[in-house]
């Protein structure tokens, strides 16, 4: 019977340990669930705040642009209250237009000069290539002609020797 009591105590202790472990695990799961719920709530709140900020920007941008345009119109109108102010503004516009025209003309001349220079360079380069190729072809033709003349002369000599030999053989037979 003594072993039965010891077994019972061991089982009871093991059961208590298992129950404590289950309780700890359940508590951890519960805490994790609470943290996950808090994280979800924070994410939803952050998302809603982001949407609110975007909506606010969508309203503020056109308002700001309109205010800047209004300020520009008011600033321009300040100088146009008197005849001298209007004349001053017209002279300013004329100077600005003149400056823009001159800048555009300079840019056009620069571009034209650059294009002309590139065209001259390409033409010169093409001429050089054509001259070089022509020179090489002429040299090759001269070499080939010289080789053909040498071969023709050699063939003529060989033919004459052959004819002489045939004549000698014919005269020796006769």
Structural commentary:
There is one protein chain. The chain has 174 residues and is an all-alpha fold. The protein contains two helices and no strands. The longest helix has 91 residues. It is flat, with a radius of gyration of 53 Å. The termini are far apart. The mean pLDDT is 87.
Helical stretch tally: 2
Rg over alpha carbons: 53 Å
The helix-strand sequence is HH
Overall strand count: 0
Q: How much strand?
A: under 5%
Helix content: over 70%
What's the shape? flat
Q: What class, by secondary structure content? A: mainly alpha
- Give start-end ranges of low-pLDDT stretches: none
For the biggest sheet, the summary is: none
Distance between the termini: 155 Å
Mean pLDDT across all residues, rounded?
A: 87
Oligomer: single chain
